[in-house]
Amino acid sequence: MECLGVSSAQHLQALSTLLSTQQQDDDGDDDEDHKNVTACAGLGPGHIGPPPKRDKEVSTVYEKKNSKDIWSEEEVAEGSQYDDLADQRPQPEYEIILKQSVGTEDLFLGLNRKDPSSMCCEAMLVKIKLPDTEPTDVVLDVKEKFLDLRTAKYKLGLHLPHPTHSHGGKAQFFSERGELEVTLLIKRSMDFINMQ
Questions:
Q1: Average pLDDT in the 136-144 region?
Q2: Counting beta carbons within 10 angstroms of the beta carbon of residue 44, is it exposed (0 to 12), middle (13 to 18) or buried (19 or more)?
């Protein structure tokens, strides 16, 4: 196959002379060319640069400690300590609503680049229906990714869809409806949408 008047054999020879590490004589012996080609054929991308040092031990993320622990604390899901299979209390009905503050400049002009997706929401509202429950009977514990609610009649262990600021939320109990509303601020990484 010819490419601009140069044969593929000439391309291979030119490539082998570029890759060869030995000085070649001007003899042009085919045996030397063959030796250079076979010597360079075993080289790959890993041979570029200085050789790796073998004396260092590679540390891994999952390096076990000297204890007899099976899991580290980072590997255990948050809220798993609240899972109790022997507890037969029913789970109450709940609803998660994502909220965002939208002004006229967002609605009509789109100046803040907000859209209706969950990535632009600032808060999460969790509505929990607790009929025949007094506000003093409610025990609520909110973590970054987990909400734990316990009453005499109900138990709810809820893994939240987004990380939250656990200390920045508020809870309000409506006795006439028998409903608890928990508002949590969503913890977002600082991206161009949330910069204000």
A1: 91
A2: exposed
